[in-house]
């Protein structure tokens, strides 16, 4: 059995989503399904329960999830010992980031960083915010390129803000506000509001409707969806609702939606580099120093 199959199994057991797990492993969903089928045949048991709406681990799958991590840990430890003995040891740095919102920064910076630090293996993981925070907390990732509203205090991690992003409102192109260009939150609040379901994303309110609260503006919430992508998809068909979102997520909008900047400018989103001060990976300091130099010499907009 190839060790990569255990990596795939562990990732799928964390995400419980074949499509997302396949994307993160850079393979197709049918290939991942075949690999998991092979593992189930190898162990002679069902590891996942699947239907059209959900994926969950069986009791045996949960057991294998624990044991697979032990195997991976032992494998990587042995690999490090052998590489150190043969002089092939390389340092590692794991980075989590929020999709296309941060890619422009990573592409510009990582190319040069890798050239200057050939002894460091840099691994990047595209994540949702909730996943990214968990990866940082558990030190599965060393650094994170994340987004945070400026009124939301960061008590858990150290951070280096490097770019600001304005608050915007997304509407269908047939919405009465669509031709305005810039609108006030008061005007937006007069229309039904949709947002991400807090049961799916705990900080949903802070990243959307809390902006109304900052200005003591009442609003009417009419619908919540599993994620921001689904919210944007529904804007394509609903021409009387509005969605608060940061400008950098504009790529999620379809052809029938437009993004308008909010006139009020006391609150915005910060794009920032985040890390846990308890993480002892020495590559973190090296990365931070190089990134600070990069920020001084390279325009990001």
Q: Which features would summarize this protein structure in a list?
A:
alpha/beta; Arc Repressor Mutant, subunit A; D-Maltodextrin-Binding Protein, domain 2; five-stranded mixed beta sheet; four-stranded mixed beta sheet; WH-like_DNA-bd_sf; DNA-binding; DNA binding; transcription regulation
Largest sheet: 5 strands, mixed
The number of helical runs is 10
- What structural class do helix, strand and pairing data support? alpha/beta
Give the averaged pLDDT, no decimals: 87
CATH architecture of the largest domain: 3-Layer(aba) Sandwich
The CATH topology annotation of the largest domain reads as D-Maltodextrin-Binding Protein, domain 2
What distance separates the N and C termini? Answer: 47 Å
Number of domains: 3
Overall 3D form: globular
Portion of residues within helices: 40-55%
Radius of gyration: 22 Å
CATH class term of the largest domain = Alpha Beta
SSE order, one letter for each helix or strand: HHHEEHEHEHEEEEHEHEHEEEH
Strand line-up in the sheet with most strands: 4-3-5-13-6
Number of strands: 13
What portion of the residues fall into strands of 2 or more residues? 15-25%
Low-pLDDT ranges: none
Keywords: DNA-binding, Transcription, Transcription regulation
Protein name: LysR family transcriptional regulator
GO molecular function: DNA binding; DNA-binding transcription factor activity
Organism: Brenneria rubrifaciens
């Amino acid at each position: 059995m190839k060790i990569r199959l255990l990596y795939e199994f562990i990732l799928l057991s964390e995400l419980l989503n074949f499509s997302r797990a396949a994307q993160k492993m850079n393979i197709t969903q049918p290939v991942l399904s075949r690999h998991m089928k092979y593992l189930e045949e190898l162990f002679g048991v069902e590891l996942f329960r699947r239907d059209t709406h959900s994926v969950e681990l069986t009791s045996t799958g949960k057991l294998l999830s624990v044991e697979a991590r032990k195997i991976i840990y032992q494998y990587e430890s042995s690999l490090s010992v052998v590489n150190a003995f043969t002089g092939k040891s390389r340092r590692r740095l794991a980075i989590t980031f929020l999709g296309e919102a941060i890619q422009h920064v990573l592409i510009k910076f990582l190319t040069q960083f890798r050239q200057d630090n050939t002894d460091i293996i840099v691994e990047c993981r595209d994540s949702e915010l909730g996943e990214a925070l968990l990866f940082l907390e558990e030190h599965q990732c060393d650094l994170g390129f994340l987004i945070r509203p400026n009124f939301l205090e960061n008590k858990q991690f150290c951070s280096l803000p490097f770019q600001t992003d304005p608050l915007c409102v997304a509407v269908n192109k047939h919405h009465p506000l669509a031709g305005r260009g810039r609108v006030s939150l008061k005007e937006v609040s007069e229309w039904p509001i949709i947002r991400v379901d807090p049961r799916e994303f705990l900080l949903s309110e802070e990243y959307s409707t809390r902006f109304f609260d900052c200005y003591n503006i009442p609003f009417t919430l009419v619908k919540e969806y599993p994620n921001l992508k689904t919210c944007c998809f529904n804007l394509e068909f609903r021409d009387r609702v509005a969605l608060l979102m940061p400008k950098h997520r504009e790529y999620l909008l379809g052809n029938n939606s437009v993004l308008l900047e909010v006139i009020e400018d006391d609150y915005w989103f910060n794009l920032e580099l985040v890390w846990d001060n308890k993480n002892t990976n020495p590559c973190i300091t090296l990365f931070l120093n190089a990134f600070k130099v990069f920020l001084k010499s390279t325009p990001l907009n």
